[in-house]
Design a protein that fits this description.
- The protein is mainly alpha-helical and about 45 residues long.
- The chain has one domain (about 5-45).
- It has helices at about 5-30, 35-45.
Amino acid sequence: MKTKKQKDIFLDTEGDNWFLRNRQALEANDAKTDPLLNEILKISPPP
């Protein structure tokens, strides 16, 4: 049996855990009023 390295364990779980920890803040963010996102969309609008 191969033992996982700490780095691999972190990479396997941290992305999902970050979203779980920050879900409320992400849901509260209104993309329509985000000035940076609006500038990016002016340069490269979605297809």
